Queue: 4 jobs
Job 1
Amino acid sequence: MSKFFPLMEFIGNICLVALLSFGGWLVMQNSLKPGELVAFFSLVNYLMWPIMNLGYVINLFSQAKASGERLLEILDAKEEITDSGHAVKNGRLNGDVVFSDVSLQYTKENAEALHGVSFQAERGKTIGLIGATGSGKSSIIQLLSRFYEPTSGRIMIDGKPLEHYSLKMLRSNIGVVPQESFLFSSTIRSNISYGNPDASMEEIIESAKRAQAHDFIMELPNQYDTMLGERGLGLSGGQKQRIAIARAICLNPGILILDDSTSAVDMETEHRIQLALREVMRDRTTFIIAHRISSLKHADEILVLDKGVVKERGTHEQLLEENGLYKRIFDLQYKDQNVLNEPHFAG
Amino acid sequence: MENQAKKQTLMNRFFYTSDQIIEKPFNWAQMWRLLKYLKPYRKNLLPLSFLTVMISAAIRLTVPILIGVYALDKAIAGRDMNLLAILISVISGLYLVNYVSNVLRIRWMNKLGQHVIYDLRQHLFTHVQRLSHRFFDERSAGSILVRIMNDINSLQELFTSGVINLLMDILLLFGIIVILFSLSPELTIAIMVTLPVMFFISTNLRRKIRRSWQKVRLKQSKLNSHLNESIQGIRVTQAFTQEKENMMYFEGVNSENFEAWREATKKNATFRPLVEMTNAVGTAILIWYGTSLIINETITIGVFVSFAFYLGMFWEPISRLGQVYNQLLMGMASSERIFEFLDEKPSVADKEDAVKIKELKGRIEFEQVEFSYDGNRKALHSISFEVPAGTSLALVGHTGSGKTTIANLISRFYDATGGTVKVDGIPITDISLSDLRSQISIVLQDTFIFSGTIMENIRFGRPNAADEEVIEAAKAVGADSFISALPNGYATEVEERGNVLSAGERQLISFARALLADPRILILDEATASIDTETEVKIQAALKTLLHGRTAIMIAHRLSTIRDADKILVLDHGRKIEEGNHQELIEKRGMYYELVKAQYQMFQRN
């Protein structure tokens, strides 16, 4: 721009000089009347503007072309997971989940994230997933909500493959409490009812109570109408997590997924949430991802994952007897608790 | 109808603060303060820019006379070929000079503007970095960012073009009026009839147009906030299948934006035709009255042509003056917000006679310390305790019991509102802040990773440490093995929200960072986030290395850490409930006993 305008002005000025020299000469030769020369001065002005504008527009055009290409790149990206034409759109899922020999590879360059994972979870049962970072715990959850499709193997809910249900129906029957509780810039009330905007106030309060969030919400200046997000007040990590739990409960889902969701609360609150969740979990299939054994020791089946493979499986007691990976994790964590096996606590 | 109602409720789904740029009345003191930022350039860029402005203005003012009065009237009418040739070469020469000076003017003015903006932003950032925690408690990161970026950007135009163009335009306007009067007072007065109209348009209509563009900006910022949030929260949205509802919301925000645009462009479109109209009226007057003056022989054809040139040049400065005026008003609003930050004093500051201490021993004492964040509710009630140098203190209690507050007071992020905090027997308000903080390291629960390599992230603890020292520290806390296993080792790029490191690995990095800093006092906010077991073992071992020989204040969650502490302080609602070591407190069967039991039961029973 800084080069463009002075140049344009300069070109216009050259035109004027040319007009003056040639026009002046013509007038002196009597082949042009002085009045006509004067008229030319105005006419040259009219000619200059469109020329200047043309340069400007060409410049704009090349900028627009570059932007357009980038836009098209996004618009052309394919929705990889879509509903089939005859997918079931409405209804409640019972929550009987079956994984049979499921493998997943995110991209060709990466190693397999899951390899030959099989398990069965009936309604009302709880499945615990434990393992180091990158062991494949989250991949199982991603597959269940159909954010990715397995590279091989089958996943079924209530006896039908996932594709049998529409994405909307599938996901609104799965309540997810993510590891990082993302809340939106809105009231606490709309955040809890995010997945179920038609929920009544009673349902919202009920969900909050079950997530042990009601008490602290009532202590806030505007209670359920308190703004969160950039203009709202900052909640502590534990409070956010409880709202995220309430959000999942508010869906009244057949399947509940707790992705390391009590990690940011203090020990007493975790205990209270767990007690309350037990009630919520009673008639749902629940998946608990955790690092702390205390979070999932009551699961009906615990899958111990390592590098995408199920290394051990069974109940807490069975796994302890197996004396393998789980037992090692247990010993490491339990060493803390041994402190308490002192006479004071014997009763 | 139902759809409409649904849309209405959906439009209340999200709320965003609008970054409102309001106009403020012109304020001389503030303007003067802004202009001071030009001061460093008063010997080079500023006079150079002024010079080019003067040259351009002078040439623009001279050429029409040369063409009209001299070329047309004298040379062409007098058939003087030589004079015409001389005039043409003079005019060409002037235009060439004008071209060069224009190029330089734009270059220098941009440079000047950029420099001023750079200085201002640097100044503001340096200042904000020094401010105390209290300042950041009261504001969201977003609102601070807006000031450092947007408000300063909005001043950019004022400095790059505004101030200097103002001078140019005033010069041109006065020049033109003076020249026109000297050529023909009658014709000048006749033409000036349009002046009030021009003025009215440029101020009044411009203001309306400006306001409607402001509205567009507000709508755009709402659109941006929503876009930003929806992309960040896309996983939640998809998991809760709210894509449709969010699309409806977006449609709403989008159409608000569209409407604002439509309104603004509509108003904008009325501007040019009106300009043309006034111009045409001026030209009509010129032709009508000018020709009669030519016939009367009061003026020559050359004067008439010069008039036509000047009339064409007249509008531009007037129109631009309106624009500069707009920039000024908006600049006032932005600069007021910027100065508000610059005038903010750090609430924690060094005393005049602050003690310089190079080496602390690390004994910490609290003497009846009280604290309140908001001046209302007390976060700490008369807390007293002592931590001998080289020993550890574990703070135990629920969220909100005051653990973090105690840690904050020791680092002097806040000053106690009552009582005294002492280090080595000296009240910390008497110790120079940088000396104090250089002896304290804080390991936060949520380790902040800066964008950069792992090497740089660890070196953050002591910026002048050699690579070997960094690696040494990483080895000491057991972080070396996982770092070396990364594809690029210590040169691996990590970022704030990246997935390269797990929570536990981040924790180890922060341990290495703290170890490298080699502080006398260590404040540790133990991670609650679950860490995979392998890393957990390393962390426990690393903690022992790190604590060795230092005074440690630990906001502890793991029972093993708490048990190993030399002293435990049990807090509840800002009050000290119990104090002692693990054994003593268990025997006391008080609150600590209950807390431990609760955890124990959670694990054993149910």
Job 2
Amino acid sequence: MRFKDGHLLGLEYVDREDIDLILKTAASFREVLERPIKKVPTLQGKTVVNLFFENSTRTRISFELAEKRLSADSVNFSSSTSSVKKGETLLDTARNIEAMKIDMVVIRHQSPGAPNFLAENLDANIINAGDGAHEHPTQALLDMMTILEKHETIDGLRVAIIGDISHSRVALSNIHGLLKMGAKVTLCGPATLIPREIEKLGVDVCYHIDDVLSSVDVINVLRIQLERQEGGLFPSLREYHNYFGITKARLDKLAKPITIMHPGPINRGVEISSDVADSEHSLILNQVTNGVAIRMAVLYLLAGGENINA
Amino acid sequence: MEFRVKAKLVTPEDMRRIVTRLAHEIIEKNRGVEDLVIIGIHTRGAFLAERIARKIMDIENHEIPTGYLDATLYRDDFRTRLKQPEVQVTNISFPLDEKNIVLVDDVLYTGRTVRAALDALMDFGRPARIDLAVLVDRGHRELPIRADFVGKNIPTSVGEEVRVKLTEVDKEDGVNLVEQVAGGKKK
């Protein structure tokens, strides 16, 4: 069990065996969510702080629910209403919160590496809920869990990640996770949104969406942020939709249906059309449900690991 | 840790007879099979539950709803044990309200697993009654819990362990009394 350092900072640092264990544990927690009383007493007495320096709806609610389902006490922090506005550093904020005797910190921060920095400086278990364009490990884990609903194994599966790869922490975590699990990963998007040399991670790059769609089993469609267009990385949202948007017309040309995922929030009519997002092959809402189970599994495994160093 | 088998206490034939007797006792105490459900505690309790349910089916020609329970999330040693146990899937696909539940486990020892299982069951509904059936009662209770149906009482010392084997997971049926080999590593 590599969780011995007590943190989940990114899938780059986690091995296949641990990913398997998280996915397996999450499948068991999924059942807890279907019970009449959706709560177990496992983490009674543990305190988790959700430290969110960036806006988030889905991820934060998902972590909060996971904590409550496991009976942990959770405290929310958002930078807009805190002393960060008064100029306090990340380390001081975190140390002050830790001084209140907490056990785990879930952090989202705009700077890549912020969770790693906290892990070096605090005794609490740190979970990365997204750091800049670096990693978002629980998202990639819930994506893999969702893939396993439709496909028996990830090993050998062909998965495409489509969209803004350069600015996406979801993409990087998915790349690390999927490759470790034995998938064949293809990236697709405008050349301006795909980092040069990314092939060195072991992925393929293709700029033609139709070629990609006809040769994969699963696609994970990333959100296109409006700010990127303003930055001049592609001409217009409409042009993006024409060249890379996932539409029913494109999918109808394929020999077999493929599994469609999206980490949300969706821009309907930009990276994905509404009829595709709501189709039977779209697992977008399953991803959200699985997100709670994955986060419960990660909290459970990390919280129990404190004595393993012995 | 290494273990040495001290005694083989139950043969496959014994096991079959024990399951048959437990099934009869359960039917007798319940005065039939009305409202009866059987819940096994993972892993071996679940297979025993299935065997007992099949036997009751043979005797009464009535299918008994059978489920499995993983009590890991309700355990009281979560904060102190060295490794987190793997969480198994709980599968109880029928309502437990007003049912007579027979909870099945392989070995009754400290009673802590049963305590955890009782808490877990209460989160699924409000049963009319819960009885406990175990294949082996080895003594040394740490909580005020007793079994209603016992396959075999095996007095043990704390240094010994009772290993139940079932063909579903272990290739053979049987119950062995084992003890730690002297000089073996302590947990």
Job 3
Amino acid sequence: MSLRRPSSALVVLAIATVGALGGCSALRPMAGASPESSAGASAGGAAPTAGLTDANIAAIVVAANNADILYADLALAKSQDKAVREFATMVKMDHQSVNEAAVALVTRLKVTPVDNEISFDLRDDAETKRLIFRDLEGFAFDSTYAANEVTYHKQVLGAIDGALIPSAKNAELKALLVQVRPAVAAHLSHAESLASAKSRRR
Amino acid sequence: MRELLVIALLALGGVTCATRKAPPPAPGTRHEVQMRAVAFAPKELTVHLGDTVSWKNVDIVRHNALRPNTFDTGELKPGESHNWTPADTGTYAYRCTIHQRMRGRITVVTKQKVESGKP
């Protein structure tokens, strides 16, 4: 089997694996939420969100941003596809900006991020997916990466709408989350286009 | 009596102004285009030759505004801005090269065309 031109079965398996892992995430949409929800719609809330403090939310924001930065770094290291590289460059830059704003805010508010089940799960998921991505090349990598970006951004958007914004107590933290949402929605819309283009090519 | 006359004239002036369409801003005006929520606001803008367009990033992520061979704001961090004073009339479609769906358009006209409503 050529690494550059993997079989369709391998690509499907990789996407299914990443998708299934996404389903294990603490940010998975609530039951009943449409799996086809797009940028304009909430994918539902996160699972273990009761009692989230602002310090928990800060840790989740940083972990979520770092997860997608990690995926983007992999894409920039492995992919030769122009559209994939442009997308990865954009999401990396945007997530870095959000992290900078989040860190500046919590520093000013003297809030120390406190890890929780969701932030730990985000890191675990990111590491697991990194290992999957590491072994993929060419089209298999590009299509799996694009599919994962759709899943990831749906989950993050669902978490922002269903858990983080409703739970945030500090007005500035809530405002930051509200300000982040359009960028996440734009990423999701872009990722859906990218994944659709990749699935057509399969 | 003179005070009453002044008030009456001012009131008349107010009514007259209210019934007329607001005049376009004078040439040399600065127009702000905000980069917010991964969009340009306003998305479309008509300005006079001699006006200045100022893009201001009020978003949480970085943006730029590029029209090849015409203007390039460079990468603007949140809070940063960039000015451009058009040298020619025309319609200039532009985009943020970081966010491919973030697009805008600026139409530059002479003062007479704006006032006559025939851009």
Job 4
Amino acid sequence: MSKELFEKMAQSIIDGESEVAVALAKHAIESGIDPLEAITKGFVLGVNTVGDAFSRGDAFLPELVMAGEAMKAAVTTLEPEMARRGTARQVLGKVVLATVEGDIHEIGKTLVGTLLSASGFQVYDMGVDVSASRIIEKVREVDANIVALSALLTTTMVKQGEVIEILKKEGLRSSVKVMVGGAPVTRDWVQKIGADGYSEDAIGAVNAGKQLVGA
Amino acid sequence: MSKNIKSITNPKLSLNILTPNEVQRIHEATLNIIENVGVRFPSKRALEIWEAYGARVDHDRMIVKVKPHLIEEALKKAPPVYPLAARDPAQDLMLDGNHVYVGTDGCGVEVIDLHSGQRRTSCLQDVADVARIADYLEEVAFHWVAVSAQDKPAETRGLHEIKALWENSTKHVQTESIYNESEARAAIEMAAAIAGGREQLRQRPVLSLMQCTASPLGHDGGSLEAALLAAEAGIPTGFMTMAACLTTGPATMAGTLAVGNAEVIAATALLELAYPGAPVFYAAAQTASDLRSGAYTGGGPEDFLFGAATNLLSDFYNIPLSMGSFATGAKEPNWQAGIENSLSTFMACVVMSDMLLGVGFLHGSRIWSYAQMLMDCEIFSIIHKTMQGIVVDDESLALDTIAAVGPGGNFLMQKHTRQHMRDIFLPQFMDRRTYNEWESKNDDGRNWALARAREIHANHQPEPIDPRLSAEMTKIIIGAERG
């Protein structure tokens, strides 16, 4: 019975069907199934299947994103039950994610968020045009392992460096890794501002994130 | 000194890419989107203008929904023909639907150094150096800011950049790197200084502005406010959509055309409502995102089709088009760059897009290459020649000459040959040498293009700007830096 349910869970992720995934998660809670098991024996297998197909070149980015969103929906549904049972999903790390102040470009940042969260990170996506002070506040509030900063414009890219400077001033720099991204970001820029990691695309951001937390 | 600008005009080639009915359907889909889905205008000033004209404005979400007739009526006020003026009036460009002009691409972040060949972060001197070479080249009709002056403060960087363009070239300056109200205000002052006053600037706009939209269906507040200021001053202004199939647009090309069209015509209508008759242009560089990475590709058949289709839309609205072409994703000048830049530019030319952006970049408009710049100019020259088609008349049929040579002779000695031989295209960077020569020299077009760029850079002296104008521009920039 559970085996069949777990298979359906995995399939809902493979199909990128968030609503089905949520319904299955609710069903699991009602049936008294351990939510952690639902994740590890069910939903995660779907994420892995899509991830493997992507690596082989058989699946494309939209499938990866849909799987990621379905996974997020399933986990969100299961979280209250995990809290009730006093268990928690093991996460690779906590990431505060934002597009920097003065910049409204969203899609790359959101894509990185979805893929990081599908890969097991806890992502706090603060949206676009976010001031350095709000980012720092959030880093402190959630005790983040990584702060990930996106910028599309050469003129707003400088804010990535400003966030790092403020982290230093506030004595937070040693406790949080900084990764940056966006079309104008180059390796030279990353070195110049002293960021810890960067990626030229969203898939690479997951690897960069994993490296930074030693996963 | 370079006075002549090479443009495509009176073409013999044409292409049918969309039927009038298909264009109409895209237009209707666009109006449907603007009326029912809405477009985000995150600017208080823009929202107030929309509200004053009776559009439905959601101030919290900053989304505007507009009835079709309001958009259509506003667009009718846009002038179909106007000039882009140059510091040297002989280099003015007429946007009249019968000229294709090429600019330098922008705005990159790295440069392959002209002398060392090393890739490095771009600076103000690079803007000046590119401008000087572009000033010389007949294929380049106008400037974009090729690379970002990253050694200047972000708040006034765009002003330093246009000053460098004017100081190093007499050609028209179009900036794509000024996207906030305060910088736009100072830029207009600088342009007025060059033109000799506000009214002269309106008659002869030596500056034009390009603003990017924020696909899907959005704009940047600073861009809108900069554009409104420019429209008020009579400075030609365009909104460029870079909607990309899969990510910022639907996976289907028609849907992505409609999304981008909604962004562009809604913002253009805003300018015409605020300042009726303001010179505006349509700008686009749609693409299809890469299926694996989601990245901007800068090439591929979708780009080529967008390049040809978009001019039908701008023609439908009767405003000039600035079209992205040449934007190869190649990392060095290679076969990919050759294919992508040739086909994208051919497709945009064959439908007579007014402005093409532009020459000189690698890696999806990020890395400036002087060699690529010169080779892109050669691509344009090849297309320029191709677009002239085949002339068929008594002179070109050459019956007398054919009779004079007869069977088995050759045409090398004929007067007719001497008269017409220079019609035949002679490439600068294509390898037509013997195999042995190629083998012994071991070089190719890339080396020759780079050598040519170095030669132009070393020898070409642009017509100097009046030092008083330079000083005036400096004063304006200092004023802007003080806020």
